[in-house]
Write a structure and sequence with these properties.
single chain; mainly alpha; Helicase, Ruva Protein, domain 3; 8 helices; 49% helix
C-alpha cells in the first residue's frame, strides 16, 4: 500500500504501519481508522482495495510528508528572521522548549568538547609546561 509517496510495510498492522508516514502519529491513527471504518488489528497486506481507498480518503484532510516538512521549515525560518528567542535557539542548535542544557541535551548539542584543562603529556609536547622539560 502506498500513501503520500511512501510504501507501507506489508507485514505490519495497519495502525502501526500508518505511523511510518511523516505527520501521522499513534493518536491520529485511531481517528483515521475510525473514519475509514477499518479495524486496527488487520495487516496491511490483507486490506482490500476498497479499504485502502477509504483510508486514503480519510488522509486527504491531513498535511503529510513534503507539505508538512516544508511548513515546519518555513515556520522555523520565520522564527529565525524575526530573531525571537526560539529562533535564536534553533540557529544555535540548542533546545528551544525550555529544557536544561547544563547536564543534558547531548543529542541536540552533540559530542562533549572539553574546554580549558590540558593534560600534562600534551602540555609537554606543546612546550607549555616548563617543569617537565627541566627534568
Amino acid at each position: 500500500m502506498r500513501i503520500a509517496g511512501y510504501n507501507l510495510p506489508d507485514t505490519k498492522r495497519v495502525d502501526i504501519a500508518l505511523t511510518y508516514v511523516y505527520g501521522i502519529g499513534r493518536r491520529n491513527v485511531v481517528g483515521i481508522l475510525k473514519k475509514a471504518g477499518v479495524e486496527s488489528f488487520k495487516r496491511v497486506n490483507v486490506l482490500s482495495e476498497e479499504e485502502q481507498k477509504r483510508i486514503q480518503n480519510a488522509l486527504e484532510t491531513y498535511k503529510l510528508e513534503g507539505d508538512l516538512r516544508a511548513e515546519v521549515s518555513t515556520d522555523i525560518k520565520r522564527l529565525k528572521e524575526i530573531s525571537s528567542y526560539r529562533g535564536t535557539r534553533h540557529s544555535k542548535n540548542l533546545p528551544a522548549r525550555g529544557q536544561r542544557t547544563r547536564s543534558n541535551a547531548r543529542t541536540k548539542r552533540g559530542k562533549r568538547v572539553t574546554i580549558g584543562a590540558i593534560k600534562k603529556e600534551v602540555a609537554v609536547k606543546l612546550g607549555i609546561d616548563k617543569k617537565e622539560e627541566g627534568k
